[in-house]
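input
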Amino acid sequence: MADEPTSSEPIKGPTSYFPSIEKTYGKPMSHWFALVAARKGAKHSDTVNWLKKEHGLGHGHANAIVAHCKSAGKA
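output
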């Protein structure tokens, strides 16, 4: 199928940040997803700012996590 990614295609969107997030902060993505899920209903920007302030994430990493969770209906 043409819509299925192949191993030679680069990962795009928020998920492209996930390997760097895990390496930089030493926690699996499930950890970050659970934190964001616990704030379900909060505004995107409020959750991004919370991850930055309380957990020391950079803006791009925090935004990628929240965007992924929001698009999956988990935030």
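quick obs: Residues 14-71 form one domain.
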